[in-house]
Amino acid sequence: MHLISSSPKSKRLVLIAGAALLLLAGGVFADYWSAKPIGTKADYVGRSACIDCHRDQAALFVGSDHDKAMDFATSETVLGDFDDATLEHDGMVSRMFRDGERFMVRTDGPSGELEDFEVKYVFGVDPLQQYMVEFDRTADMPDHEIARVQVLRISWDTANKRWFYLRPPDVADKLLPDDPLHWTGIAQRWQTMCADCHSTNLKRNFDPVANRYHTTYSEIDVSCESCHGPGSLHVELANEKSLFWDRIHGYGLARLKGLDPQPQLQSCAPCHSRRGLLDDQFKPGDLFTDHYNLELLRPDTYHADGQIKDEVYVFGSFIQSRMYHKGIRCTDCHDPHSLKLKKTGNETCTSCHQHAAGKYDVPSHHHHAVGSAGAMCVNCHMPHTTYMEVDARRDHSIRVPRPDLSVKLGTPNACSHCHVADQLESIGEPLKKTFTTKEYSQWLMAAEQGNQVISDAISATDKWCDEACEKWYGNDRKQPVHFAEPIVAFRRREAGSLEGMLRLAMESDETAPALARASSIAELVDAGASQVIPTAKQLIDDASQAPIVRAAAVGAFALSSPEDARRTLLPLLSDPSRLVRTEAARMLVASGGYQTLTGAEQLRVDQSLSEVEASLMETSDRAGAHMAWAMLCERRGRIDEAISAYETAIRIEPNTTGPRSNFASLLENVASQNRSPDGPAMMVRVRELRTAELPLLRRDAGLAPDNAPIQYRLGLSLYLAGEMEEALAQIERAVALAPEVAEFQQARDLLKEKLEQE
Fold first, then answer.
1. What's this model's pTM, rounded to 2 decimal places?
2. What is the DSSP string of 234-303?
């Protein structure tokens, strides 16, 4: 037997092949290991850079509500009738017409007189389209900058092809030009109310000194990079000859498709939530609470059980749902590019909720005729509220109807939502002539405003619906304890309700959503219940709590001693959550804790307050932002800064109430404490400020006759102006509206005593 030995040539081939493999492996590894530096920033490149590789997604996007969120007014984009059409409202006739290529509206302007205005932009496409006018544009402004833009209230109903006048809720009277709700007022300003969520990479660029906007955007509508983040790095990586995506930056875009639903949900949340702005640096994939402060369950925006009341834009209701806690995300139901539902009708729900065959989409479950409105899953579990007169939006808390809670607590329910209209025949002839709506939210509003007939009709409907559910479901009926129960009890000032709210604050996510628990703390603070402080401390120390819960707990230290605030809040200045640490810095000042700090500790707070100032100045076009900063400066003894901020607030919103009163009080205190030669001049300025404030307070009190704090503020202003009898009448009105507020009663009693002595 002979052994076969390799020849020198074959050995060389093996060595060469091995070396080649090593070189190849090394090259592949080097290719993988090479990466863009950490911190590489991506820029916005526009949708044109996306289309070549993502044609299917781009085709779905075209014509979507995101694509049509905003546009220039052209013959292709304008849907309304501008063929010399007219609309009568508030005793005048507005006219929509063409002037060559321009779309024009003749209506009441800032002067109150009829004027012609060019429509420069259109807003939205379904179910209504709105129209926008640019003001204050100067000749030297670059083409890419936008000056102040106002949204007309004259709107186009795209479904019914008609013009209508979009009134603010609860306002039946004609809006005067100095009213912030007038179409030329700040409440109808694009930059203030709309722009962030209708354009891509929006930068407001407001100049508070000149009181001018220089607004810019990357794209006029909601485009690819609004959801995926700036795309330059992704495009660069895609065009490289590498076998791999970047080991540090991945695709160079936000990771929205992983097992964790939060990145996607928090990327959608900024534009689908009612929230405050902490900064304008949010990019998809970031934490929502590092850039935004979600609005809590306020009585004017949510019902006590968390159902939508005012416009809250979905996210706040969705995070209350079981769906959210089970990991469901937006794109499980909605196509992310067309925004349409992925399934039609009940299939949207039954594609996931299959369980036993025929368990849900059958009369034995919903007890309504197949194919009827009552057999639709969404009508029972996602009832709608109509906003902007024609825009029906569904509640995304996706809950089981609870007419039993309606009977007990007065909260709405989906059954009464449909069946309350059955009461139209029983409300009496006089009311039937004026109250004809089937819109449930209008019934609820009428009842809230004191219409007893409507209130009784709702109660009768709730009772009928509750009895029907009891008959249908019997022992299988789901009636778990709901977080609304302690909230309603507390608002009714029932015995033991404070303890119920404290227990709610400490519930788990499984039994009460974080939004409800944060709201319970905020309500206790607003009511001055200092008993919340020990609970607040526990929540602050629990790092597993959601930032909105811990931030609400920080707010409780408005009721604490300054020393207690110092001990608890000072460590939070380095908290990883921006929401928590900025609230801690603000509260250290508001609580008086700032004065108990050492010089070094005050410096730490001042540094943290720079984040607070930056957050406030994101809305530097609002007087409230400058007034809030002025108050923080004033409490820290920075009088010159406070004066400057109050003056800025007055300059940018001269018709708003608040800054003048605060400024006058500051000057009065300085003049009384500082015997400088400027004292008499300061007091002259105090009188001027209060004189200018009085008519503004009268206006607000007339616009909100049932708002106790506003009536009280007018009463105090009248007292300071020497109008004692009228001041007493106003304060007594505040007491009648809010008899539980001790401050109002004390002021009334002191003023009565003063008048009797005189």
1. 0.92
2. HHHHHTS--SS-BTTTBTSS---SSS-SHHHHHHHGGGSS-EEES-S---TTS-GGGTEEE----TTTB-
